[in-house]
Amino acid sequence: MAGRPGYVTLPIISVLAAIGYVYYTTVFLAIPAWLGLATAAGVANAAAYTALALACVATYGLAITRDPGRVPPAFVPDVEDAQTPIHEIKRKGGDLRYCQKCSHYKPPRAHHCRVCKRCILRMDHHCIWINNCVGHENYKIFLVFVLYVATASLYSMILIIGAAVHSAPKDEQSGSDSPRSSIIICGVILCPILLSTSILLGWHVYLILHNKTTIEYHEGVRAMWLAEKAGNLYHHPYDLGFYHNTVSVLGPNILCWLCPVSRNTGNGIRFRTSYDIPLSTSAFKKEEHLSMS
Questions:
Q1: Number of domains in the chain
Q2: 126 & 243 share domain
Q3: Beta-carbon neighbour count of residue 215 at 10 Å?
Q4: pLDDT digits (tens, 9 = 90+) for 8-45
């Protein structure tokens, strides 16, 4: 892919190694030490955790390989379009946003990534752990991956704690603690993973509910400060309310919100704003269907 680093990097290898190590310790050490793989409970937990681990790997691969959404080279903003109530302009000069490096105009919410060396639609940030930008086309996949990892980490931590507590008396009697030591080491590794992914998940849930990207959040802090300084109130133009904000990212079908392959809403160039004419729920769904077709 032009303008993109190679897929396989040290952070990606580290993530895959961590997933493999945690999976092995959980399924082949923790579950046998606590429940036993020959029991119904052990088999059920091993199968459930294996499915969750496969979901983590699958969504991780999609987050790495899915194009985040590049700005079409022929894009030109139509300032006379009545359906576009606002246009983003440069802070200095007030001109329409134009990327000198890519030599084309930038749609609203698009930004140039110095690593990928191109403009990304609805860019949130560049993530070194997937060696890819998080943008309009892969944001939901990235979010679902973080959710799966946080859930798998919590599930693994519960199994590891149970195994460590249950195997302690047996290890003391036999004088051997090698499996228990490996389980405890895995638990120590899981602590920062669980903490960081939980915080990251909570942060992006907040952003989704307010229809913001990470870049827009930091820009909004400054805009709010400037507005308050001038005696005005700042309102994020893309905030449509919690429900419509969530639908705009995860899609109109609630049953597919956790599915990483469902189609995105819109094309990443034009977004509904709070300045648009209010639409009824049925009209909003019709607009989403047309934008997805």
A1: 2
A2: yes
A3: 14
A4: 899 999 999 999 999 999 999 999 999 999 999 999 99
Same domain, 131 and 224: yes
Residue 174 shares a structural domain with residue 260? no
Distance (Å, rounded) from C-alpha 135 to C-alpha 128?
Answer: 14
3-state secondary structure of 127: strand
Q: How far is CA 221 from the centre of its chain?
A: 22
> What is residue 120's three-state secondary structure?
strand
Whether residue 251 lies inside any domain: the answer is yes
Q: Which domain holds residue 284?
A: 98-137+210-292
Residue 107: inside a domain: yes
- Residue 36 and residue 60 in one domain: yes
Q: Are 83 and 60 in contact (CB under 8 A)?
A: no
Which residue, among 152, 145, 179, 148, has the nearest Cα to 25 in the 3D structure? 179
Q: What is the mean pLDDT of residues 232-253?
A: 88
Which residues are annotated as catalytic? 127
DSSP state of 262: S
pLDDT in tens, 172-225: 555 555 678 889 999 999 999 999 999 999 999 999 999 999 999 988 887 777
CB-based burial, 221-232: b 16+ in 10 Å, e otherwise: eeeeeeeeeeee
What is the phi/psi pair of residue 134, to 5°?
-105, 110
Q: Report yes or no: 89 and 78 within 8 Å, Cβ to Cβ.
A: no
User: Bridge partners of 99?
Assistant: 104
What is the distance of C-alpha 44 from the center of its chain? 29
For 246-293, the pLDDT digits (tens) are: 998 998 888 888 887 766 677 888 888 887 755 444 444 444 433 333
